[in-house]
Specification:
The chain has a six-stranded mixed beta sheet with strand order 2-1-6-5-4-3. It is of the alpha+beta class. The protein is elongated, with a radius of gyration of 16 Å. It has helices at residues 6-27, 34-37, 52-64, 130-137; strands at 38-44, 47-48, 65-78, 81-92, 105-117, 120-128.
């Protein structure tokens, strides 16, 4: 059986932190956890937003979509970085990206890259297929 070193333990903790945010923050809408997960000077796409940035993102999506869930797929961690491939599912109930509520169910994917320091997320770089969501809302093939 392989022996885990401290780096392996930290990397596993970083992956668990990302899974926790997707489950508690995104899927359940429990925004209180953001203050325990994100550093006060957290950077989102290079912009300092603190924990309020992720909270606003979740609020906006939950306002437009019901039954929102995020499923974690592949995760890879190296050093302070953790990458997570995820799939989002939801039902469109209010205006989003200029499209009035349709009631349609959507599925889309994304990739999140976090840098974690001292147990807090200090930076997020992500790619989400927003265009795929808009196409589905407009009734086009995804």
């Amino acid at each position: 059986m392989p022996v885990r070193d401290a780096a392996d333990t930290v990397q596993e903790a970083n992956k668990a932190l990302a899974r926790y945010w997707f489950d508690e923050g995104w899927t359940r809408g429990n925004l209180d956890v953001a203050d325990r997960i994100f550093a006060p000077d957290f950077l989102l796409g290079g912009v300092r937003v603190g924990p309020e940035g992720p909270k606003q993102s979740v609020r906006r999506r939950h306002a437009a979509f019901a039954d929102l869930t995020v499923e974690v797929g592949i995760q890879v961690a190296e050093g302070p970085w953790v990458a997570t491939w995820f799939t989002t599912r939801a039902r469109h109930v209010r205006e989003f990206a200029g499209v009035p509520a349709t009631g349609r169910s959507i599925v889309s994917e994304g990739m999140q890259l976090w840098r974690v320091g001292n147990g807090l997320v200090v930076e997020d770089r992500n790619v989400f297929d927003l265009w795929k969501v808009v196409r589905q809302l407009r009734g086009a093939a995804a």
